[in-house]
DNA sequence: CTGGGGAGGGGGCCC
DNA sequence: TGGGCCCCCTCCCCA
């Protein structure tokens, strides 16, 4: 009827003035038009084409079109108006259920349920929550007609196999990185967008890999380490117009719910989708068990998840006790878990402060064995975490009453304690000596000001930090294997946050919008920087020519121009005090130690390095302010000479 | 064509 | 865990 009415003007307009001649254009209707349109839209959704909204449901991502959502659901309509990223309450709708709802929106059909699929009752509840009246009506009708609600609740499907083959027809993220197969619907020349899933959905595994660690289920390179997950369930963005995407690890291997053994708690805090589902709808436990059975989920029919989890737990415990270093990828996964647990266990600072390093633990353990300590060896040859516990619980020292003050270890006799003290590495002694030579900034305990401010020193590179967590974070940079791989491109990162941020670029998420021009950014800092363009603020001033810049990096690039002449040689001279200040600051305060030492070790490098130039003035100011010294005074006090940097002595050259 | 500035974007890393 | 900052690369525009 609408078509006829809408086309009426057209018929009138095309009718010849005389009324006769060519036949009158009658309004016609193509019955399959709406169906074809929906099919096209659904195809586009599957390919991610023109999708302008991402819906996050717990650990799963769905891409869709705002118009379609708005036309189907009053609730979603209210959301998509303001946001490109929707975060649905997974207590109300689980990822599996939402997939069915989204399918219904795009196809007008409600997928049949098979064992493990969300029940019709759950779909009804979700449809009510999302305000999809057509689906609500359909669910009610189905429930009334079939009268098999009890079976549904029990996980039994009266419908047989799924007609639309959700599992088979949903390749999801086919590729993580090079070498992986491309999606079947992708043309060879087409940019490979790993987000182009058939259902426009991505899943983030909350299981942190239990079944993923099964050989044969997933290529080893896809075995994302457990702690690498993006937590989808946390953090909301500061911008009201958007939401960040805290994700848990995106699981590239399956289009459906993340695989979780019953009762398996995600380390990231993301509970099982199906546990949530069952709890939300008071489903009996067997529903979840049926849903997540790995044999249902993965090609190759892996063993049941629960024994798998147990085996993994045993393996993990074994490795934990053995203190095995990361080796194979699976081992790395275990090592990462271990590291996570160690971090949570509030391990003490390492090396030079009352602490126990892992290798020291082993040494300590061997010492105990040698001396017949009351503490017997632990499985695998080390005491592992127990040793750490011993070291910090005086009452647990047992007969080891002679305690080494610096490291807190106990020994049964003074002779053994003396032997232990002598065994402290030369490096430590050298450092202490170095600190004592540092002169006026030392306290009587032999600690430099830098050590006081940053007492947690990396045993690998000598960098110092204010707190142990930062030190642990830093130490990951020394790991041969970066623990947080991107599940889309495979790039690995040393910090989870960096990987999360990287993922945002894959997903095209730019939560921070400029109010003035509408430009969006992936980071708040970028927006702040960008806003200076509108405000005209240029806080970065060139100390040489007075030029001002809105962005620091452009000042740095500008300084390059000042520093390096046409022949590449330096153009500027800098006062000795500046060098002295940098040396003082680097050595005593631990600020940019490596960089300052590097800069000072070679004057030419220093002069050609804008980073050093830029850092000198703030460093000098900092030093003057905090130590109550003038630059000249500090320079006079320090004088020319070798810079003691860590356990190395670096010659310093005067800029003249 | 080239150099310089402006600006977007990504990774590293400390707090 | 996310924010913030630093550093780098890159592109674009303009003189």
Would you write up a description of this structure?
This protein starts with a helix and ends in a 6-residue tail after the last strand. Mean pLDDT is 52; it is low at 1-21, 149-398, 424-445 and 566-656. The chain has a 5-stranded mixed β-sheet with strand order 3-1-2-4-5. Strands 6-7 form a two-stranded antiparallel sheet. Helix content is 44%, strand content 7%. The chain is of the alpha+beta class and 656 residues long. Helix 6 runs antiparallel to helix 7 (133-146), helix 23 runs antiparallel to helix 24 and helix 23 (576-589) crosses helix 27 (631-638). The chain binds a DNA duplex (15 and 15 nucleotides) through residues 231, 234-235, 238, 244, 246, 465-467, 469-470, 473-474, 477, 491, 493-498, 500-502, 505, 519, 521-526, 528-530, 533, 547, 549-554, 556-558, 561, 611.
